[in-house]
Every structure is written in structure tokens, then in C-alpha cells.
């Protein structure tokens, strides 16, 4: 039972009065009457007095005093219990609001990640005339621009078509395919996006790959502790504004002004585009809240590691299609090929073609290798191939797993073989021809990944854990973390060492074996 404070006070007053009545001093309720009669005679006069006690109470006892104290104690217990119940209800309401806020932030985070992962599906395969216009550059890793429309307007909930670096606005829930997401106080979420990861429909030369770095900074509630290190800045920051503080106005005319919803404290500002931002709540010396914003973020590492999984899936599909059509996998591209070490996208990116003298290197980027209607253009345009290690086996390079033959040199799998299938004349499309020619291949019949055989494999480095770029580097340690995986970049290392790999025990590198 929950009782209002006014009801408790009334009950307390009734019980107190009752207790006071029970404890009245002895004699207060006694009533005495006296009568005097006079008789006169000639001889004498007599006076007589008669005392009659009417409604006399017995003397007060200790039992009555104890009952009064018990009643007063009961009143105190009821009053205290009601106060505690009221506080508990307030605390429960606050906890429920907090839980709803955290749930809203997490839902928005997952929606942004899912949207980014799915970019380029069913529409990124461009026609030749569109490639130089960049109209098909939807790519994994990018994030939508914030929504700057006022609530209630037709465009509310939809991402803007373009935005500046660090742009701040409301979460574009409609673009994400969701209903409006609100925090525990019923306020729509706000959202900031980093310049390197924002969606661009016209600037096709802005690449997103595992080397891309974010710049948004987020500080802890003390305003001094940076929770986004230099190699893992925030690609996106989500804000739950909470209830209005101070002189914030939240009527229709002020609904697009960020400072009416997000606060600033300790030299950090959540209502300024680009930040730096601060994770609330923050309280002043009096205990009053200086800001009540709740934050959640997506780091560049989280976003790019997820994008790497999408990239691996695409190349698995493309290489699988190639193997089905040709009975083998394509040769790797030479890691030192200048066309495989571009710093910016170019229409000549397809020159990063297979090298038939290699069984280890970079992933070839010649579109002519793959079916024209299945090759997502964003793979090349964002230079993902430069960050992917591609290893192949002698059987993986021979039609139908060795059906072409091949002359074994020496004993054992690691001593090399003569490949009689694949020449490399420059006139061949993509650098590969079906005519037979002999050459020395320093690779095993099969690759070994965690003790299991594979025909080929690809390895993605994942997001960079440092601020230094890796694309274009010839140092394999810049891409793969485990030392046993760092000795097979070219053919100079004996195959017995270079063609044996292990999956890392940490999630940085992503290995995918091809059978």
C-alpha cells in the first residue's frame, strides 16, 4: 500500500490524539457532588454532610501509558515506512528511466553498425559510365549523416544528404529503418559522426578501409580522462539528452538547437560539432547536475573490424566464383607492385593484377578476373585489396586441385614444383592464360592453417592499432600480428616455413581458408 504524505500526516494526528487521551492524568475525569441538609428544632440544630462520587475513574495505570506509547510508535513506523516507500518508488522510477536510456543507446548503436555493415549490397556493382562519378560508392564502414530536421516535419528522422566533419544532429532513425528511439525521459537521441566515416555520395576519392582513422574525442565525467585513445577515436557518438536543465527551451521553435538538449561542462561541450565530448552525468559541488547527457560511442576499431568481416565475405564469394569457373584460384599479386600500393584510388587500380611467379602476395584487383556483374566496385575504390594477404598452394593454383599436373622437385611438400599450367605473358587478360609453360613455384601442395590443410587463404589485418598507415607497406608485420604468419610475403622463404599459418588468439586478424 502506498500512502500519500498528506494521508500519513492525517493518520498520524488521529493516532497521536488518541494516544494523548489514553494517557490523561488521574483525577481529570472525576466528578464530585455534595449536599447539605439543615434541620431546626427548638432544642438543637444538627449539620450533616453527604458526599456522593459520580462517574469516578479508577486511577491511571502503567498499562494505559504503555498503550499510548505503542500507538505513538505505530504512528512513527507508519510515517517512516511511507517515506521509505516513497523514496523506493522514486529510486525505482529513476532506475527504470536509466535502463530505458541505456537500452535506447544500445539499440541505436547496433542499428548504426548493421546499416554500415550492409552498405553496398544490391546496388554497389557499378556500370562503367558510373564509376568515375562515384554514384555507386556505398561502402561498408561509412555512417549516415545526422538528421537536422525539426520533429514533426516530413523529413524528420531522415539523414541529410551531406554533412561536415563532426556533424551533430538527431539520430536518423528513419534512414536506419527504425521507429523513433527515445531515452528514459522521452527525448529523441542525438548523434555526431566523424568526418572520415561520414557518407559521401559525390566524393568517391575519400576511401574507407582498415587504415582509416577517426578523430572524435570523448572524455570521462571528470573532464580530464580521455576514453578514446589516438588509435581508437570515435567514429560516431550517441547522446541521450535526458530532461531539460537550467534555462534549456524545448518547444517547437527551439527543437533543432543542440544546446537546448545537450550540455557543456569542465571545458567539454556535447552541443558543439566535433566536440570534444564528455560522458555524463556531471555534478557540481552542491550536488546539482551540471549536465545529464548519457553517451555511447562506436570506435573506429569496432566499425572497421566489422567492415573487414564484410570484405572477407565478398572476397570469399568472388574467389569461390572464380574457382568454380576456372577450376583453380588466381595467382596473388606481387606485394611490391606499385599498382598495389596506391595512396588514393585510381582508374588504373586494376593494374594490381595476378603474378604467375607468386603463390603469396596481395589480393589481385583486376576486375577482369571476376564476373562483371558480381564485383562490387567499392572493393577496389576503397583499396581494400592492398591490406589483404593472399596465400595460395600449388594445388590451389592448378586446375581442379592439381589435375594440370606439376612436376615435383625433390622430396616432401615443401621443396617446390614445376607448374606446367600458368604462364604470365603481358597480353593475357588479367595476366593469366590457359597455355602451358613451366616455372618454379616455391609453395606447398597445400597450405596449413591451424594444422588443417587448405588450398588458399586470405588474411585481413583488421583496424590499425596505431596511428601509422599500413597500406603500401612491404613489411608483413604491419598487417599480421602473429610472428609465425610474418615470414611468407614473397617466394624467398622456404615453403615449409612460409605456408604454415595460425589464427591469432586475439581478434585483430581475420583468417579465412578457401577449400
From TrEMBL:
Region (Disordered): 29-48, 485-515
Swiss-Prot/TrEMBL keywords: Membrane, Signal, Transmembrane, Transmembrane helix
Regions of compositional bias (Low complexity) in chain numbering: 34-48
Coiled-coil ranges from the UniProt annotation: none
Leader sequence residues: 1-19
Keyword Amino-acid biosynthesis part of the UniProt annotation: no
Membrane spanning stretches: 67-86
The name this protein goes by in its record: Tfp pilus assembly protein PilX
Amino acid at each position: 500500500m502506498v500512502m500519500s504524505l498528506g494521508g500519513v500526516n492525517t493518520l498520524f494526528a488521529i493516532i497521536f490524539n488518541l494516544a494523548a487521551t489514553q494517557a490523561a492524568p488521574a483525577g481529570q475525569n472525576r466528578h464530585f457532588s455534595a449536599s447539605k441538609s439543615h434541620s431546626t428544632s427548638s432544642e438543637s440544630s444538627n449539620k450533616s454532610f453527604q458526599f456522593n462520587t459520580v462517574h469516578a475513574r479508577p486511577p491511571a495505570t502503567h498499562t494505559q501509558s504503555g498503550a499510548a506509547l505503542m500507538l505513538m510508535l505505530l504512528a512513527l513506523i507508519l510515517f517512516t515506512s511511507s517515506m521509505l516507500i516513497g523514496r523506493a518508488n522514486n529510486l525505482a522510477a529513476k532506475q527504470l528511466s536509466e535502463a530505458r536510456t541505456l537500452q535506447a543507446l544500445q539499440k541505436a548503436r547496433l542499428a548504426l553498425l548493421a546499416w554500415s555493415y550492409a552498405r553496398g549490397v544490391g546496388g554497389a556493382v557499378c556500370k562503367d559510365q558510373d564509376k568515375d562519378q562515384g554514384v555507386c560508392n556505398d561502402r561498408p564502414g561509412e555512417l549516415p549523416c545526422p538528421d537536422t530536421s525539426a520533429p514533426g516535419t516530413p523529413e524528420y528522422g531522415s539523414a541529410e544528404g551531406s554533412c561536415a566533419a563532426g556533424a551533430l544532429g538527431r539520430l536518423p532513425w528513419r534512414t536506419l529503418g527504425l521507429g523513433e528511439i527515445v531515452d528514459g525521459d522521452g527525448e529523441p537521441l542525438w548523434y555526431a559522426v566523424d568526418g572520415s566515416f561520414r557518407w559521401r555520395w559525390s566524393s568517391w576519392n575519400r576511401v574507407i578501409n582498415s587504415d582509416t582513422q577517426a578523430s572524435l574525442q570523448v572524455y570521462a565525467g571528470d573532464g580530464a580522462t580521455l576514453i578514446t585513445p589516438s588509435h581508437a577515436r570515435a567514429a560516431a557518438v550517441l547522446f541521450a539528452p535526458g530532461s531539460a536543465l537550467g534555462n534549456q527551451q524545448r518547444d517547437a521553435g527551439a527543437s533543432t538547437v543542440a544546446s537546448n538538449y545537450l550540455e557543456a561542462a569542465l571545458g567539454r561541450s556535447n552541443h558543439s560539432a566535433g566536440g570534444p565530448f564528455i560522458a555524463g552525468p556531471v555534478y557540481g559541488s552542491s550536488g546539482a547536475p551540471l549536465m545529464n547527457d548519457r553517451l555511447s560511442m562506436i570506435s573506429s576499431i569496432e566499425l572497421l573490424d566489422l567492415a573487414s568481416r564484410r570484405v572477407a565475405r565478398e572476397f570469399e564469394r568472388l574467389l569461390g566464383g572464380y574457382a568454380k569457373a576456372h577450376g583453380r584460384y588466381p595467382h596473388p599479386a606481387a606485394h611490391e607492385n606499385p599498382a598495389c600500393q596506391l595512396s588514393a584510388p585510381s582508374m588504373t587500380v586494376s593494374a594490381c593484377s595476378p603474378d604467375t611467379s607468386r603463390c603469396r602476395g596481395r589480393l589481385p584487383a583486376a576486375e577482369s578476373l571476376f564476373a562483371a556483374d558480381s564485383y562490387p566496385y567499392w572493393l577496389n575504390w576503397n583499396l581494400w585489396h592492398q591490406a589483404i594477404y593472399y596465400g595460395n598452394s600449388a594445388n590451389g593454383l592448378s586446375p581442379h586441385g592439381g589435375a594440370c599436373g606439376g612436376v615435383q622437385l625433390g622430396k616432401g611438400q615443401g621443396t617446390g614444383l614445376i607448374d606446367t599450367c600458368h604462364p604470365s605473358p603481358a597480353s593475357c587478360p588479367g595476366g593469366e592464360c590457359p597455355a602451358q609453360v613451366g616455372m618454379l613455384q616455391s609453395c606447398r601442395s597445400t597450405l596449413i592453417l591451424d594444422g588443417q590443410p587448405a588450398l588458399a587463404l586470405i588474411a585481413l589485418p583488421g583496424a590499425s592499432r596505431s596511428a601509422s598507415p599500413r597500406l603500401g607497406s612491404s613489411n608483413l608485420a604491419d598487417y599480421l600480428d602473429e610472428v609465425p604468419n610474418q615470414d611468407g610475403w614473397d617466394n624467398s622463404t622456404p615453403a615449409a616455413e612460409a605456408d604454415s599459418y595460425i589464427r591469432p588468439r586475439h581478434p585483430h586478424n581475420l583468417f579465412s581458408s578457401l577449400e
